[in-house]
């Protein structure tokens, strides 16, 4: 066997593998041994028919497909291993037969590979930095949310409904005079202001009184899930049966103790501030890092192979599927309810997937070029922190660790160092966020 590698289009390489006549004959013999039990010929027991008889009976090429698969399957991995220093395969190869003769065969495969990334600049740039802070008003909002979560519903009879109320309504929707699936319900409970209906619906229900009936007109968004309703104007006939308001509990030490496990209102506020400040710091860091990568990506030249994008789409779809499962929905049921195909659903993630791939390639490229590493001491320190968080010693914790966890810790340390380096080597400015 001998092979050659040539650069092909869109971040792929062409691997050409040549086999001589002896190798081809051996592969055919292997294919015969693998498949002979499937065939029977008069005068021979099943599985005992000689190869030359089967070739005469079924044709000379009876074992060619399997023989080609054997040759490629046995030799392609070793080629990829030998070429590891020159390229990294990032997807399955697409093989084709270029020559098929008694004296030998040639198989060529187009292989998607990790692309070369050319970064125009990643130092001395002016990049926006995000900083989010926590105010007393933010604490007050959280306290109000706590009250609302523990509020008692009270029936309202002396006023029209308002934002924040829960109303019981009948509704029947139609487009061009024709009712559509999912557009009709009776005695439906709707919290006004929850934005659970299409824009304009809840706002027009606000102000209705008990027993009142009226028609409201709304327009489905252009990106609405159901294809037959996108951008369409609809009329909903509404009848309001019941209004329930919220009776908010008084904010006292006793209330926060029962509702949040804090001894005093002050303790609740302090703990809430601490939680929000951690969230604000994380949001500030995440958005600043995204801002840095976005600025660098504008200077980047790279051709991303479809295989890398599709793999990232797979991951995003899987995450969406997990979120739906958490809500008690199967993905296939969701698609059916929304009138979507899997192809169109995957298409929603393609742009984000390509960006994720480019961002990752940028990070890997700069880490490599700047020689950023994670020392064993730094890895051990991080392992010790994780061990302490679950009340274990580092040695105990290490026994339960998968090698991939060590790899993740190492990668996380290098990425943290990278963004510190990028923040130090660029001019970061803040705006009101």
Could you list some keywords that capture this structure?
433 residues; alpha+beta; Alpha-Beta Plaits; Chitinase A, domain 3; Trigger factor, domain 2; four-stranded antiparallel beta sheet; 14 helices; extended
Cα(first) to Cα(last) distance is 62 Å
What is the number of helices? Answer: 14
Q: Kindly estimate the percentage of residues that lie in beta strands according to DSSP.
A: 15-25%
Taking all Cα atoms into account, the compactness measure Rg is: 32 Å
Helical content (DSSP H or I, runs of 4+): 40-55%
Overall 3D geometry? extended
Architecture of the largest domain, CATH level 2?
Orthogonal Bundle
What is the assembly state of the chains in this entry?
A: single chain
Sheet with most strands: 5 strands, antiparallel
The tally of domains stands at 3
Class by alpha and beta content: alpha+beta
Q: CATH H-level name of the largest domain... which superfamily?
A: Trigger factor, C-terminal domain
β-strand number: 13
CATH class of the largest domain: Mainly Alpha
- Uncertain ranges: none
CATH topology of the largest domain: Trigger factor, domain 2
Short description:
This protein has 433 residues and is an alpha+beta fold.
């Amino acid at each position: 066997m001998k092979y050659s590698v040539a650069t092909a289009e869109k971040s792929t390489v062409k691997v050409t593998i040549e086999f001589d006549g002896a190798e081809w004959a051996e592969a055919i013999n292997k294919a015969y041994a693998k498949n002979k039990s499937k065939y029977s010929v008069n005068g021979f027991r099943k599985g005992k028919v000689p190869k030359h008889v089967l070739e005469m009976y079924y044709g000379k090429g009876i074992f060619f497909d399997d023989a080609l698969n054997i040759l490629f399957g046995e030799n392609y991995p070793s080629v990829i291993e030998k070429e590891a220093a020159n390229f990294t395969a990032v997807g399955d190869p697409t093989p084709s037969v270029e020559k098929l003769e008694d004296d030998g065969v040639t198989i060529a495969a187009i292989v998607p590979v990790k692309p070369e990334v050319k970064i125009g600049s990643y130092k001395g740039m002016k990049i926006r930095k995000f900083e989010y802070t926590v105010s007393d008003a933010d604490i007050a909002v959280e306290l109000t949310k706590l009250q609302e979560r523990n509020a008692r519903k009270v029936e309202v009879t002396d006023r029209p409904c308002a934002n924040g109320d829960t109303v019981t309504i009948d509704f029947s929707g139609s487009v061009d005079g024709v009712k559509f699936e999912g557009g009709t319900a009776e005695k439906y409970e709707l919290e006004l202001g929850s934005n659970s209906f299409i824009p304009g619906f809840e706002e027009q229900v606000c102000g209705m009184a008990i027993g009142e009936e009226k028609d409201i007109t709304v327009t489905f968004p252009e990106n609405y899930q159901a294809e037959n309703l996108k951008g369409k104007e609809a009329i909903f006939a509404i009848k309001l049966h019941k209004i329930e308001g919220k009776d908010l509990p008084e904010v006292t030490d006793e209330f926060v103790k029962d509702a949040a496990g804090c001894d005093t209102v002050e303790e609740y506020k302090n703990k809430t501030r601490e939680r929000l400040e951690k969230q604000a710091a994380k949001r500030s860091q995440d958005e600043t890092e995204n801002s840095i990568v976005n600025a660098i990506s504008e200077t980047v030249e790279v051709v991303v192979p479809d295989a890398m994008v599709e793999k990232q789409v797979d991951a995003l779809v899987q995450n969406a599927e997990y979120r739906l499962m958490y809500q008690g929905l199967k993905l296939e049921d969701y698609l059916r309810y929304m009138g979507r195909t899997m192809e169109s659903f995957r298409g929603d993630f393609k742009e984000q997937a390509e960006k994720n791939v480019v961002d990752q390639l940028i990070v890997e490229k700069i880490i490599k070029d700047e020689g950023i590493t994670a020392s064993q001491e730094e890895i051990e320190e991080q392992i010790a922190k994780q061990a302490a968080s679950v009340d274990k010693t580092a040695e105990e914790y290490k026994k339960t660790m998968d090698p991939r966890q060590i790899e993740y810790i190492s990668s996380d340390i290098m990425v943290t160092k990278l963004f510190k380096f990028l923040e130090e080597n660029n001019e970061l400015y803040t705006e009101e966020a």
